[in-house]
Amino acid sequence: MRRITVLAAALTLLAGLLPAVLPAVANAAPPGLGAFVVSQAQFDQMFPSRRPFYTYNGLTSAMGAFPAFANTGSDTVRKQEAAAFLANVNHETGGLVHIVEQNTSNYPHYCDRSQPYGCPAGQAAYYGRGPIQLSWNFNYKAAGDALGLNLLNNPWLVERDAAVSWKTALWYWMTQSGPGTMSGHSAIVNGRGFGETIRSINGALECDGRNPATVQSRVNAYQRFTQILGVPPGGDLYC
């Protein structure tokens, strides 16, 4: 009888502990994925005029598809990468204000008919959208294939779904070198500096003295964001 009494007491104690334990388990970060180094308050400080479409939760949700983002290297490097990504986003969208490219006369130019899949959504359907302004039919095709989405036929999803919009930006940041030699992610984690991230995004139009004002705009945002996160910006800020 004593064994039964002790067991019952243990079960009662465990039942009392479970309500406190379960919320912590439910809120724990997935294995290998730490909490985002930018808090909601810091994000709001960085983007005081952002459109409601660009939610913090949309970004953190999208990060699940790219667990190495802002989660590689030292705490300083992780914060520098987050600041670098968001600084480029800041420039591309006017402070997370613009969801789509503002110059509508450019829209028909982003259809490369030499691609075997063509432009099934229409000649003018592949204009810039989202935090890094995804454009061109071949980029929508590649991003959609990587994310398991049919963006070639439905590019509008990038301007209608916040998580998808952030995912396309992270896809470009993590995997594409653009006119540069490496991705933005690789540039930061390998110590190549913020300037190399500008080259990977829009180097053909901005780097090597082509448009110093826009480069300076990106650098200013990066310096401001690293200050908010409490880390040095590092060297090689320009391209």
| Apparent shape | globular
Beta percentage is under 5%
Largest sheet: none
Q: Write down the secondary-structure element order.
A: HHHHHHHHHH
Derived from helix and strand composition plus strand pairing, the structural class reads mainly alpha
Q: How many β strands by DSSP?
A: 0
- Tally of alpha and pi helices: 10
Cα Rg? 22 Å
Mean pLDDT: 88
Helix amount? 40-55%
Q: Between the first and last Cα atoms, what is the distance in angstroms? A: 79 Å
Flag low-confidence runs. 1-33
Protein name: Glycoside hydrolase family 19 catalytic domain-containing protein
Pfam families: Glyco_hydro_19
Domain Glycoside hydrolase family 19 catalytic: 39-239
Keywords: Disulfide bond, Plant defense, Signal
Quickly list its features.
239 residues; mainly alpha; 10 helices; 0% strand; globular
Can you walk through the features of this model?
The chain contains 10 helices and no strands. The chain has 239 residues and is mainly alpha-helical. Helix 9 runs antiparallel to helix 10. The longest helix has 25 residues. The termini are far apart. The N terminus is likely disordered.
Short account of what is shown:
It comes from Actinomadura fulvescens. Keywords: Disulfide bond, Plant defense, Signal. The protein is mainly alpha-helical and 239 residues long.
SSE layout and pairings?
Blueprint (H helix, E strand, L loop, with lengths): L1 H25 L13 H7 L9 H7 L12 H19 L43 H11 L9 H4 L1 H14 L8 H6 L4 H13 L5 H18 L10
